């Protein structure tokens, strides 16, 4: 199926399904025919098409002509499940074609594990020619609508496992917190873009070269900022910083949970409190979903509680967005660790 046809199908499905026009005509019920092409899987029943009124069919035809005319000559549409992946993608697509900001599927105030996608976010998902997501290890709710076998789907978690850029221990889907992984994701995205958009091969590759060079400089800056603090003990509430720690020589002393959806029990809280005291820990890294007042009551000691948004919603998706995001994390970590 061509790019235009895939966007057409996704756009029609999104336009009608999510305002219930098709559901009103009972086409949304699970049926005998599976539409399986491009990035997505859609179940429809041929027998139910007869229930569509002439008015709806005419509307679909008119809408299809508009969509085909609009997208036939456009650059590939890139969508990312979460903000950090959008920041990486923007470094590659910025400045090429018209509206080239990668789409963002899971927006602010959404839980990547259990997103409740708005119609606009669903349209962003369905309209993608290339889709970046971490994988079911993070966005499990998207696994039912993303075709993992598609050549235009980039699974960031699988990339890191195959390349050896993973961390040991329990599954950690926060792969974007390593610039090494960001390099790999950007290189893979560029390869797929030049296959779909041969005319812009050189601009994509130039953007990639610029991005990789900026990451080299970024690593120098982060290492310089943290080198003197590598032996400083600190703790994390959610054990989500392992990629960042591994790359920049940090090691947390204690964590309350490996799964942010699970609250620590009394035994775990006492264990962490004992470790904090024994190692004279004065820095605890939190995330926006954590309540500092509640957590301060768990520590049993005066500590600096530093909230870090590892999803980076405050950063603009442009050529420097990912770099700015990682520098922001580093500044917060440094501020927390410094005596």
Automatic annotation (TrEMBL):
<dbReference type="GO" id="GO:0006829">
    <property type="term" value="P:zinc ion transport"/>
</dbReference>
<keyword id="KW-0812">Transmembrane</keyword>
<dbReference type="Pfam" id="PF01297">
    <property type="entry name" value="ZnuA"/>
</dbReference>
<keyword id="KW-0732">Signal</keyword>
<keyword id="KW-1133">Transmembrane helix</keyword>
<keyword id="KW-0406">Ion transport</keyword>
<keyword id="KW-0864">Zinc transport</keyword>
<dbReference type="GO" id="GO:0046872">
    <property type="term" value="F:metal ion binding"/>
</dbReference>
<protein>
    <recommendedName>
        <fullName>High-affinity zinc uptake system protein ZnuA</fullName>
    </recommendedName>
</protein>
<keyword id="KW-0862">Zinc</keyword>
<keyword id="KW-0813">Transport</keyword>
<comment type="similarity">
    <text>Belongs to the bacterial solute-binding protein 9 family.</text>
</comment>
<feature type="transmembrane region" description="Helical">
    <location>
        <begin position="56"/>
        <end position="74"/>
    </location>
</feature>
<keyword id="KW-0472">Membrane</keyword>
<dbReference type="InterPro" id="IPR006127">
    <property type="entry name" value="ZnuA-like"/>
</dbReference>
<dbReference type="InterPro" id="IPR050492">
    <property type="entry name" value="Bact_metal-bind_prot9"/>
</dbReference>
